[in-house]
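Work package 3, deliverable 3.1, input record:
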Amino acid sequence: MASLTLRELAARLDISVGTVSRALSGDPAIALKTRERVTEAARQYGYVPNMAARQLVSGRSGFVGFVIPVRGPNFIDSYLGEFLTGLGEGLVEHGMDLFIATVPAGRSELSVLRHVVESGRADGVVVPRIGEADERLAYLLERRFPFVAHGRMLDSSAAFNWLDADSVSAFGEIFDLLYELGHRHFGLVSISDPMTFRHLRERGLRDAIARRGDPTVILDVASAPRFDRGATVAAVNSLLHAQRRPTAMIGLFDELALTIMEEASRAGLSIPRDLSVVGFDNITAAAYAPPGLTTFEARTRDSAREIAGMLVTIIEKKPTTPITRLIAPKLVARASHGPVPETGR
Amino acid sequence: MASLTLRELAARLDISVGTVSRALSGDPAIALKTRERVTEAARQYGYVPNMAARQLVSGRSGFVGFVIPVRGPNFIDSYLGEFLTGLGEGLVEHGMDLFIATVPAGRSELSVLRHVVESGRADGVVVPRIGEADERLAYLLERRFPFVAHGRMLDSSAAFNWLDADSVSAFGEIFDLLYELGHRHFGLVSISDPMTFRHLRERGLRDAIARRGDPTVILDVASAPRFDRGATVAAVNSLLHAQRRPTAMIGLFDELALTIMEEASRAGLSIPRDLSVVGFDNITAAAYAPPGLTTFEARTRDSAREIAGMLVTIIEKKPTTPITRLIAPKLVARASHGPVPETGR
DNA sequence: GCTCAAATTTAAAACGTTTGCAATTGAGCT
DNA sequence: AGCTCAATTGCAAACGTTTTAAATTTGAGC
């Protein structure tokens, strides 16, 4: 604002603007003595470069953009909170700032993303929650705009930069854990939305079942639209009140697992005595909801921090081959799972 | 990026740049016919103004800054999630964008705020969670930089723009509610940190007690540092295991109330039969933790949206007298409070 | 003391807008 | 036809940097 300009600083030092600019950027072509003198003066007078001017000539904004995905009533849920935290942490390490855009009521997420990209206010963007046919990715790829996705496509041939939790193995691990505890009848509460993580997690579970090769294993699946509370409750109850009830139920993510626990309690079932429940994500509420939800730590925050690093590399180095990374989730064993019930089977 | 420039657009229209600029901004000095022609061409060629250039000359960035306050392990908690959501919503209505800065490990929150302000990357900032002697406010006031605080100072003479929840009356309401249910012995779990909301809430409670004028009312207070889980548990238990235990306990905010409920259960107390518990904020976990925490909806999201509007007004109109606003919290009556226990008193 | 290259610094253009002021146009009047 | 005045439009400066190319200074070698 009222801050010193480069010209003024140069005047006080009786040196040309160009030299001052170079000195501050540490250009070795400038004599060391001059560089030190300039740096010192800049510090002393509290010179702060005007980002707009710098951006105008460099073409880089120093911002990474993030469009908050449209969703239910609460925009920033547990996942996004973690994610943004990590992203901020990661970016600040690289001297980048975070530009957050929300989607106004009438407009589409894509149009906002377009605004972010085309206004030149961001040098790259991070795209969370990948859908099966994601128009955001299509747009960014076509436009060759730097981005990193959190999540991947099902078709691994799609060439772009992504980082994802290895939910395939995590869901395999859940199955193995419960199988070892004697469970043979599983219920999965899933979503009907076209998100890729849904397929990956289901695949992880199914692959593990197939690997085990035990024909007595049963898997029932019930799905509901993502943020439709009523339908979700109905889906959960369709499994809970089936003729033969699963002994272990898995939520595609914690919110679903919590709903399972609620409905089970309502139905008079005791967890984990009558029913084992496992989730995925380890959201805050998972620790509070009795008896404590067994789940997987998706390490969202670490993931986001790493994504920040990846994106900065991509912006600066413009690598030709995509960078991809898998993060291994970690089991958080709480009290909602246990051995298969002896009775009633 | 590869987007059309104003000069190019002007060339195609065979009109001067200045005219095009004015036409696009809707300047009535430009003939209507020309304006329409330009607008149409801009739309057709997909012209997007370069924000950096615009910012350089106008001196305005179109960004509102927000420095994520330093805190415990999880930066973006429930409060901040709600707040950022509302802020984004509010800003987008005014065509402004949100610039989020995180505080790197070694640096102070103030230094980051200074960076945001002095780099000219934001036209105004929003400051959450006001402390008793808040150096951020002191800095912004001295610098005369536009800002709105979420929260106020105790000394109401401090002249700046703020919006706050009317926690004084809310805590009075809590007291009245519990008093009517027969409670006379209250326990308040508070924090020892120098945040102004702590004093305001305690004051609300004390004022209500004084107003009632019943000398049999007892209020015990225990405090712990904000994010010190161990000390918090100890503070809670100091009240729970006192010679005479309060029949109603109030958490300064929901996290504390949830801890009260946890520790009470651990001590074998049934809620609300043996103990009533009330919180404040209505965080997500409040609904999940059994038997459902009675609390106040602080309307953080609405508040943030309104703050966005206030800030835009301040940036554009530069009013001379401060804008202040109180938001009335709303009771969310769940199952954690009830009549005073008949026995044991 | 001179030459020439290396080291250092300077001048000026460029980035893409906005905006004050001057210039042009054309209609209405005399 | 000439003049005035308002309505339009054009010109050019300015915003604060970075960076290219040119100019200047320095200093080593003879």
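Residues 118 and 145 of chain A are 10 Å apart (CA to CA).
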